[in-house]
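Minutes, project huddle
Topic: does the predicted pose make sense with pyridoxal-5'-phosphate bound?
PN asked that the exact inputs be recorded in the minutes so nobody has to dig through chat later. Recorded below.
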Amino acid sequence: MTERIHNFSAGPAMLPLPVLEQAQRELISLPGIGMSVMEISHRSKPFDEIIHGAESGLRELLQVPEGYHILFLQGGASLQFSMLAMNFLPRDGSADYIVTGSWGKKAVKEAKKCGNVNIAATMADGGFTRVPAQDEMKLDPHAAFVHLTTNETIEGVEWKTEPNTGEVPLVADASSDILSHPIPIEKYAFIYAGAQKNIGPSGVTLVIVRDDLLKRIPDGLHTMLDYRTHVENNSLYNTPNTWGIYIINLVCQWLKDKGGLEGMHRENEAKAALLYDAIDGTDFYRGHADSDSRSIMNVTYRLPSEELEKKFCAEATAQGLDGLKGHRSVGGIRASIYNAFPLAGVQALVSFMKEFERKNG
Ligand SMILES: *Cc1c(COP(=O)(O)O)cnc(C)c1O
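Predicted holo structure (tokens), as shared on screen:
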């Protein structure tokens, strides 16, 4: 099959077609190198240029100021749940966690193994449909850090502005909405993201760490689990995912060609609005998240019954609209429309939804 279908997968997710095409052209031999990116040393000059390109691309797109390091690690966002707590949560200290969905819960589970966790707010009672207001959070002014999930991929709940954490460093899992819109990096002390939603292929984890945090790291951590190792070695202490970093470099180029994150944000807003309008326009579809906390990346909704949801997914798949089944833990429908997902795919889904309602509503 050479035809590409509309891929609503939550992750690994679609990559931009021009990126795949360039990677295909260069797969056997990088221009002027005569070898694939997967066959060259991570300490070679060509790879040095690639990793620097990826780093400076991200720095430019996200407007990362001086005083932050950008790292390319492995182990996914899931390893960061543990690693950030090992590095920044002292045994006798406490960290605040704001839980707005399933990934936040997983982050809490790991942090508890390192120290005390204060659940500053959890939206579990309402079924994770929104982010808390400032006055709903019980923030501890002495916390080691405040952790949140910028976009809860499973529930489709996204923060629109950062909470005020005062002097306490803000730490964020931004796996599923990083690069979808500009972010005020200076409000964050630490950001991490698995690459496979908006940055590149799986197997790379992006970390952006403010330098002053590095001074808090206790001695005695395993070398690979100590952020200072990766800062001091420019992410080349051990062999990184060279292929993944190469693709990230291409994705950054693609984003810059599209007008950077502001241009990308406008497109993402337009795609999400089209879909949310279709959901709001009828009682047949019911959006999961409250309108002010709705994700522009993962659009979650329900149909009148689970039988209809099953039928919906089966018929959509048959029409080349793939990956719409909600996460097994919450059910329903989830349309993941990350940066690389085209407007035409959203239009196709909206037409399908209208037709499906006409036949089954
Ligand atoms: C996908 C995802 C994760 C898990 O990422 P892995 O790279 O598979 O460990 C964590 N947090 C969020 C918000 C995610 O979307």
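Observations noted during the meeting:
- Residues 57 and 252 are 5 Å apart (CA to CA).
- Residues 11, 76-78, 103, 149, 153, 173, 175-176, 194, 197 surround pyridoxal-5'-phosphate (CB under 6 Å).
No decisions taken; revisit at the next huddle.
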